[in-house]
Amino acid sequence: MNITRREFLQLLAVAAAYGLPLGGRPLAADTTEGFYDLPKTGGNVTLLHFTDTHAQLLPIYFREPDVNLGVNEAYGKPPHLVGEALLRHFKIEPKTRLAHAFTSLDFENAARMYGKVGGFAHLAALVKRVRAQRPGALLLDGGDSWQGSATSLWTKAQDMVDANKLLGVDIMTGHWEFTYGAARVQEAIKKDFAGKLEFIAQNVKTEDFGDPVFKSYVMREINGVPVAVIGQAFPYTPIANPRYFVAEWTFGIQEENLQKTVSEVRAKGAQAVVLLSHNGMDVDLKLASRVTGIDAILGGHTHDAVPEPVVVKNAAGGTLVTNAGSNGKFLAVLELDVRGGAVKGRHYRLLPVFSNLIEPDQEMTALISRHRAPYEKKLKEKLAVSEALLYRRGNFTGTFDQVILDALMAIKDAEIAFTPGFRWGTTILPRQTITLEHVMDQTAITYPYTTVNALTGETIKNILEDICDNLFNPDPYYQQGGDMVRVGGLQFTCEPAQRIGKRIGNMMLKGKPIEAQKKYKVASWAPVAEGASGEPIWDVVVRYLRDQKVIRPPRLNRPRLIGVKGNPGIA
Amino acid sequence: MNELRRTFLKLSGSAGTLALATAAGVLKPGPAWAAEWNQDAFAAKAVSDALKNLGATNLIESKDIVITAPDIAENGAVVPVAVTSKIANTQSISILSEKNPFPLAASFTVSNGGEGYVSTRLKMGETSNVRAVVKADGKFYTAVKEVKVTIGGCG
Hints:
The complex is a heterodimer of chains A (571) and B (155). With 571 residues, chain A is an alpha/beta fold. Chain A has two domains: 4-60 and 116-369, 4-Layer Sandwich (Purple Acid Phosphatase, chain A, domain 2), CATH 3.60.21.10; 380-561, 5'-Nucleotidase, C-terminal domain (5'-nucleotidase,  domain 2), CATH 3.90.780. Chain A has a six-stranded mixed beta sheet, with helices on one face. A six-stranded mixed beta sheet of chain A has the order 6-7-9-10-12-11, with helices on one face. Chain A starts with a helix and ends in a 10-residue tail after the last strand. The model of chain A is unreliable at 1-32 (pLDDT under 50). Chain B has 155 residues and is of the alpha+beta class. Chain B folds into two domains: 1-36, no CATH class; 41-147, SoxY domain (Immunoglobulin-like). Helix content of chain B is 25%, strand content 34%. In chain B, a hairpin with a 2-residue loop joins strand 7 (128-136) and strand 8. Classes of the chains: A alpha/beta (571), B alpha+beta (155). Chain A binds chain B through residues 175-176, 206, 208-209, 211-213, 234, 236-241, 243, 250-253, 256, 420-422, 462-463, 466-467, 469-470, 475, 477-478, 480-483, 485, 500, 526-528, and chain B through 1-2, 5-6, 68, 70-75, 80, 127, 148, 150-155.
């Protein structure tokens, strides 16, 4: 770890030197060389990692959160740092390309200056470039690559299955993949991945006998060094998403089985052990303190773009814990120096994928065009013009979510609306036209039903408490990794550091206190219960946008937060 | 997955399997079962009453009891719970879901020298502590694990 910071700073220096690119145009080849050339580390094993691309095949804008609170043990520690606090912690120069990549500071101007991020053709070119510098490198996908766009939903993820294969992904694990149903996942593994791409998860078993559903790990030799990659699917898939998609499978963290698996691969000669995890960073940090023998956890799920790994001490040494952001915005490079049968050095960097700095890969461009062709016209349908910056990320609110809430309340004639605290969804700059594709970026799921229910004040309070506990429970193993449900109409206060039942207070509707026994009309979407039905949310939002024509900056219905003053997780 | 075993069980069907188990003496038939049923303990509505009826008035916290259960239940209707007791001469293992209307969910007798391992599924309506109570050499030992039951949604 000791060299990592210095090298990272070198990279910063390079980035700073190219701080002002020519807006929108690819830079000259030599400039590109500079940004993505990797300094020598002495490592002989390289693992490339990306995660949570959420099916974003084309370059997009993605605003990192301005609220990502850590409470209790997590206070002020990565990943719970945002804005200037994050820059200070990781010693990133403000107002630079890297500052833009990792924070939401001055987002609109910086986004116009540095351009879009990600895109699979750009990611593919970058992967090829890094692989040329690091022969033998493996490419790992941490999951959530199959969901999050119109084309992935409409092709049942075939576009992403094909894109990941062409990208050269060697190993993956999953989460939203499972929302296409168990049969679809197994079909892709059998038909498309066989002999090319391994889907691994040590923590998914059959409900009846506890038999493993997937391979737990893969052993590969990299430059003569046997390396084991163990898979960890999202442990709360049947809870956070509808259980009926995976009714015969059971998940969970499965710490004990993980420890056994580590021992097994070590016994089989693995000299380096890496966990490809979809736990979420807080869960990974706790896991790393309890399970021994893992050199690094390459993490995802919580979409935290963490520039440097956290070293977690445990009984047998220390484990690197990383989280590699989302939406194709980053490519992580982990280099291990393995000598004499053990890992002697670990180097990590998280490269932002700036689309303007990379010449897109031709083959991948063609594949994307082929998959989009049948839908291109539909995707580009213009619905409204936004006068606002529309984004989703943040613990409590996002401007695009506010538009969804406003749409639900208006179209469904409801006094209160809920929209889930998903962490995927792209960003729209002011004066950009909102297309159907943008709406699908926020809503493309396999259970999109809108429901309207009469809920008592007491039930509403319990729902808010329950979801808030998924976010702020002091024990990370009880956190599910989403953000707080976004609420329209209803005002309330929230004290994150409290216990369940005591966080939510002062619930008010149109200036009147919510009554425990009174029923309120509540519109929401994405029900996890089996048999739910209703108008798909994208139809509701599309109708609303067409009516509005121009979206003015929405008034965020952010709960009043208690006890968070000075918290470096709030900008 | 063990497809062969799965197919075999599908063919044999659950009723047939049970009949076979009974005939082979694996499960005791009705009358003998009823004789050991601790009616008062299972009917108790308070944890303290259930424990009293088990005879477990003085509980000793023990690290030799391991409760294997999910941190968050995938389905509150069937929460898999296993209890391992490494305490010598374990005679019985009882499982309580403290917030259930009738907290005592299961009680197992371990015959002479039997392995202290039991596994069952609990129905849980809300987040609760799951308590294991182990009787060994006439003394009662205990361990607790919280299982969260949540409404779900939001990934």
